[in-house]
């Protein structure tokens, strides 16, 4: 007998990430090619016609895994019974805007949607927040949906993780699949710290080696590499006049797939999760850590040695998250 369908919610489904993401989910990219899906799509009233257009295209694509599509502007309807919620809906950053400029618009959206999820979602629902400021939106969602286990609320830093892999692969002229175990620490913002100290490459016909020894240019790794990854979102906005969409959708699929189906042996990935104090990062913020996943649960990978250079950068991005938290609460009051 086939598997029971999984209900996947995508908020902001009429937007540009939504448009890239829903066909990936319906094709099995997120949960596997044998997993039937019921797609729940939420957007706001002004986007009703566009949302219906997306639904029409999903019907026209005749996806074998897609069992049903619910397209609505009612959050309570959209959240009903969902097993996975990908929260993309929100107000995106435009060229020249800082992430803090979009804070007040987004925290009130996340407070309202927290209560819809809490009332309507399946008890084991896994939540991924994509919309910016992603870490702080996820924190607000966690605070206002106290009955959802805190381990079930995460934010997307996998795009940054993939960007770091991509930069190393370009630099070394090797396939991206030959690089692994970079880490994104902290906030999905320009203070994030892409760390290569534990990353490895497996050159063709050779053994796995530390990235630092193969790149052999610490200056590049500590400066240009870090800023390129930190600023990549802004560079995409400058080039496209729109924020990243296909890479964000793909990273959202990677995040959920690894969380649900597990990370490959010997590999960790980056996820924004509620800090438990690991690596000296204070509790009370959603911070990106290296995680491994097994049987639908993530765990922070422990025991990595942190040098002074990394410590400073990890603390700086934590400090920004504490400031964002204060700002978010001041917007809600
Ligand atoms: P977009 O403007 O194209 O789409 C956003 C959609 O959300 C729109 O259709 C809008 O109508 C809808 N929306 C607004 N308020 C809503 C609400 N209350 N409920 C449901 N839907 C609502 O934006 P986009 O380019 O798709 O980006 C979406 C978000 O993702 C932005 O916040 C962007 O900054 C963020 N983003 C995050 C990452 C990441 O790696 N974490 C990467 C790229 C983009
Ligand atoms: C990205 O990393 O591409 C986006 O988060 C950029 C943005 O601010 O929307």
From TrEMBL:
<dbReference type="GO" id="GO:0006099">
    <property type="term" value="P:tricarboxylic acid cycle"/>
</dbReference>
<feature type="binding site">
    <location>
        <begin position="130"/>
        <end position="132"/>
    </location>
    <ligand>
        <name>NAD(+)</name>
    </ligand>
</feature>
<dbReference type="GO" id="GO:0006108">
    <property type="term" value="P:malate metabolic process"/>
</dbReference>
<feature type="domain" description="Lactate/malate dehydrogenase C-terminal">
    <location>
        <begin position="157"/>
        <end position="326"/>
    </location>
</feature>
<feature type="binding site">
    <location>
        <position position="99"/>
    </location>
    <ligand>
        <name>substrate</name>
    </ligand>
</feature>
<feature type="binding site">
    <location>
        <position position="93"/>
    </location>
    <ligand>
        <name>substrate</name>
    </ligand>
</feature>
<feature type="binding site">
    <location>
        <begin position="12"/>
        <end position="18"/>
    </location>
    <ligand>
        <name>NAD(+)</name>
    </ligand>
</feature>
<dbReference type="Pfam" id="PF02866">
    <property type="entry name" value="Ldh_1_C"/>
</dbReference>
<dbReference type="GO" id="GO:0030060">
    <property type="term" value="F:L-malate dehydrogenase (NAD+) activity"/>
</dbReference>
<feature type="binding site">
    <location>
        <position position="163"/>
    </location>
    <ligand>
        <name>substrate</name>
    </ligand>
</feature>
<dbReference type="InterPro" id="IPR022383">
    <property type="entry name" value="Lactate/malate_DH_C"/>
</dbReference>
<protein>
    <recommendedName>
        <fullName>Malate dehydrogenase</fullName>
        <ecNumber>1.1.1.37</ecNumber>
    </recommendedName>
</protein>
<dbReference type="InterPro" id="IPR015955">
    <property type="entry name" value="Lactate_DH/Glyco_Ohase_4_C"/>
</dbReference>
<keyword id="KW-0560">Oxidoreductase</keyword>
<dbReference type="Pfam" id="PF00056">
    <property type="entry name" value="Ldh_1_N"/>
</dbReference>
<comment type="similarity">
    <text>Belongs to the LDH/MDH superfamily. MDH type 2 family.</text>
</comment>
<feature type="active site" description="Proton acceptor">
    <location>
        <position position="188"/>
    </location>
</feature>
<dbReference type="InterPro" id="IPR011274">
    <property type="entry name" value="Malate_DH_NAD-dep_euk"/>
</dbReference>
<feature type="binding site">
    <location>
        <position position="132"/>
    </location>
    <ligand>
        <name>substrate</name>
    </ligand>
</feature>
<keyword id="KW-0816">Tricarboxylic acid cycle</keyword>
<dbReference type="InterPro" id="IPR036291">
    <property type="entry name" value="NAD(P)-bd_dom_sf"/>
</dbReference>
<dbReference type="InterPro" id="IPR001252">
    <property type="entry name" value="Malate_DH_AS"/>
</dbReference>
<feature type="domain" description="Lactate/malate dehydrogenase N-terminal">
    <location>
        <begin position="6"/>
        <end position="153"/>
    </location>
</feature>
<dbReference type="InterPro" id="IPR001557">
    <property type="entry name" value="L-lactate/malate_DH"/>
</dbReference>
<feature type="binding site">
    <location>
        <position position="43"/>
    </location>
    <ligand>
        <name>NAD(+)</name>
    </ligand>
</feature>
<dbReference type="InterPro" id="IPR001236">
    <property type="entry name" value="Lactate/malate_DH_N"/>
</dbReference>
<feature type="binding site">
    <location>
        <position position="106"/>
    </location>
    <ligand>
        <name>NAD(+)</name>
    </ligand>
</feature>
<keyword id="KW-0520">NAD</keyword>
<dbReference type="InterPro" id="IPR010945">
    <property type="entry name" value="Malate_DH_type2"/>
</dbReference>
